Each structure stands twice: as structure tokens, then as C-alpha cells.
Amino acid sequence: MTRVLVVDDDPQIVRALVINLKARTYEVDAAHDGATALRLAAARHPDVVVLDLGLPDMDGVEVIRGLRGWTRVPILVLSARHSSDEKVAALDAGADDYVTKPFGVDELLARLRAAVRRAEPAHGEGDVIVDTGEFTVDLAAKKVDRRGKDVRLTPTEWHLLEVLVRNSGRLVGQKQLLQEVWGPSYGTETNYLRVYMAQLRRKLEADPSHPKHFITEPGMGYRFEK
Amino acid sequence: MTRVLVVDDDPQIVRALVINLKARTYEVDAAHDGATALRLAAARHPDVVVLDLGLPDMDGVEVIRGLRGWTRVPILVLSARHSSDEKVAALDAGADDYVTKPFGVDELLARLRAAVRRAEPAHGEGDVIVDTGEFTVDLAAKKVDRRGKDVRLTPTEWHLLEVLVRNSGRLVGQKQLLQEVWGPSYGTETNYLRVYMAQLRRKLEADPSHPKHFITEPGMGYRFEK
DNA sequence: GCACACTTTGACGGAACCCTGACGCTGCCG
DNA sequence: CGGCAGCGTCAGGGTTCCGTCAAAGTGTGC
């Protein structure tokens, strides 16, 4: 579960945030001043910090620096100040986002989700991979794995696979497929498709003559299914 | 250098941003519609994308999805819409930040710095030393060790090795390789690659004619594998 | 101005890849 | 039942791409 540390000296705001976050099954800690915030952060290791800049005991930017001294936890700053200098100072001190009061709860939550999401450990070096159970496709690394072994694809095969995977689950018309892989003037050379789909299936499908992932939609196009 | 992709259909805004960014020594690409944006992102691998939502050819959220299909590059959304729903939709589609027009340039740049900063590999966390069993590469010290002995590399050889190792496991396109090592105008001099890959293999591979770590992907590029 | 190391360039054999045409199969319709 | 259209399969030939080598160019330090 995601743990949030809410820091604000206004009990109303803290209360509202805590209720909203708990309702969405976040785990919430709250602090009313900077010293408590730093202590709680160290003790509880939150996944994200929501920090009001107007604290009674210390400057908000100092809290950010205190946190950044030892952690890269996402910090989402709340502030009543609209001044550009304030924002720049907070962001350059290490904050991840800056929301001015009054704020919409929906927006705040969306920004919080974004902050948490990007802090998640990336697969490998930060790549999105598609897994079918039989093989995996790593689009950024241009890598296909099948039972632990790398599958070698030619440029055309890869390009075709790429277009299909990017439209995973959706039907891709043969004209679109041809034009994206071979170029705008190749919209009718459907035999290319037949040849290369066969190669992809031979290299990736467990039973190439009964494909489970590269589906033919007769007369229309092809579809990639996990 | 940090590379930024600016996407906006308003030439004024693009111009203003490009000037501001270049003055701060960012490298800037610009696109005025979604299709161009996606193509440029794939071709140039920017470190951060500044994306206006109101594009002429496609919905901005679709551009975000198109990018998120294969990359985690930070996306900073610009928009004239203040509606909370718009923000939530963009952020949940995978955007990292959302700035409403009109925006302060200082604030935008600060948010951009924040986005780039947190995308950087963690300090001291990233493995500076890569070990293949046959040889080790120390990126920080710029040293290569093979069976206890230092391997002497020329500047170009090192530069090439560095790019490959930084993308360990991933395929690096020959154009990208050429442009990163020799400069933006050398994107087609593939014979350089052939010569220098051969030298790297001769110096580092146990059996240079059957490379295990510097893999050729014909027609696409090269890949470094531990 | 010479020696040395590095980069660039050109040429060539061989490997990998892409296109192409032919054929068989299936399902549909006349 | 026969013809037709769409799809899958296969193999050969032309073309592109890669590894290798050698030699010419470039720059730097002595």
C-alpha cells in the first residue's frame, strides 16, 4: 500500500486530505510542523510527501532540503503563495510538484498518482515490456525474449511487430500496416504482409499454423493479442 | 546536454520556448502537431517533452499514450484549459506535470528542471562499473580492465563504448550511435561504425570474430550485452 | 620537420535480408 | 461442382549491409 505523509499547519486541510486519501486506500501520516515532518519521514519512509510551505516552525524550503539530504521521495508542495519566485525556489530545492491553494482535490490526487507512478522502479532500465506468457517484447530495447532466449528479428519483422504491439488488442488494417512499415506508397502490396506475418509467427508462436497472438482478420487486417 | 522536445501548434509559443531553452544551453527540437511529435520523439530520444494539448491533428492525450507506449520520458503538459477533468485525464494518461497558459517562463523552466532532475539516475546508486566476466568498464574513471590489465582505448573507441554501455542490453540505432559519437551530421557514415566496432571487438572480445558482447543487429544497430 | 597515434576513406568478399513469383489451401458464391 | 478471392508457405535471386584490411590523411609532441 502507498504511504503518504501530509504536512500542513491547518487542521482543516489535513483533515480533508486524510479523509480523501484514506478513502482511496492510502496509508496516511500527518504532521503539523517541519520538525515533526522530518522525524515522521525518517521513521515511516512514506512513498510521497504532501508539504505545505507555510509552517510555524521552519521555512518550507528548509524542510525540502532536509528531506533531500537523504531521500528522493516525491515531494508535492502546497502553498497559498502564487509568486513565481516561491515556486522556483521550492522546485529547485528538490520539490517534484507545486500546487497553489485553493486546489481541486481531484487535481491534487491526480498529481499525487503521477508522482507515485514515476517513482516506481522501472523494469530493467526503465522500459515498458509486453508479456504474452509465451514471449515478451521490450519496445525500447528492441528485444524479444522467448523462453529466456533472445529472438532475432530482421528490421522489417521488428517494425511490423512494433506497429502491432503498439496497437495491442486493436485491429490494424492491412493498408495502415503496409504504409507504416513499408511506406505510404505500399498500401496494396498485401503479399508482403503475408510473408512477414508468417515469419513473425514462425519465430514467436508456439504453434505457427494456429496462431494465438497474431490474429488474422480476413479481408481487414491483423490484430495482436496478449 | 539535455534535449527537449517542444510540441505546440502556436509558432509564437514555440519560438519563445526555443529561444529561452537554447539560451540555457538546452538542445531543442520542435514539432507543431502530434504525428511529428511522436516521430521526433522516436528519432531523437529527448530527455523531456513539453507538450501542448491543443494540437491540430490529434488529441493531446493520445500523444501522451503514444509516448507512454514505449518510453518513460518526462512529459510536461501545457494547456489553455483550466478544467480539472482535463488535468486529471492528462496526468493519469502518463503526463508528469500540467501547466496552464498563460504561464510564467521561470516557473515552466523550474518545473522542467525538476522533471529532468528526477529522471536522472540516482546519485551513487547507478552502477558505475559494468562487469562482463571478460572485462570491466568503469564509466566514471573512464577505464577498461581486461584480465587485470588496463586496455588502452582511443577517444573515439571510448566514446562509442560509453554510449553502448550506457544503453546496456538495449539496441542502439546506428544513426543514434553515429550522431552521439561523431556529431549530428554524421548520421549516415555507417562505415565508421564498422571500423570502430571491429576495433572494440579486437581489443575486448575473447573471440573477435564471434562477439558475445558487442552484438550486431543487421540493418538496425548494435547492442552491448553483459 | 619528423615520428607517432589516431581518424578517415576506399575496396572487396561474404553474409543477411528483402522482394518476388508460384503453388496449395480454405471458404464463399455463382 | 467449378471458379474465385484471400491467405499461408516456400525457395531462389538480386540487393543491401557488414567485417576486414590497407593505405592515405590529420594532428600533436618532440
UniProtKB/TrEMBL annotation, chains A, B:
Q: Which domain of life is it from?
A: Bacteria
Has the keyword Phosphoprotein been applied to this entry?
yes
Q: Which residues carry this modification: 4-aspartylphosphate?
A: 52
Keywords assigned by UniProt?
DNA-binding, Phosphoprotein
Q: Which InterPro entries match?
A: CheY-like_superfamily (IPR011006), OmpR/PhoB-type_DNA-bd (IPR001867), Sig_transdc_resp-reg_receiver (IPR001789), WalR-like (IPR039420), WH-like_DNA-bd_sf (IPR036388)
Describe the location of the Response regulatory domain by residue ranges: 3-116
Give me the positions annotated for DNA binding.
127-226
* Domain OmpR/PhoB-type: start-end pairs: 127-226
Protein name in UniProt: Response regulator
Origin organism is Streptomyces indiaensis
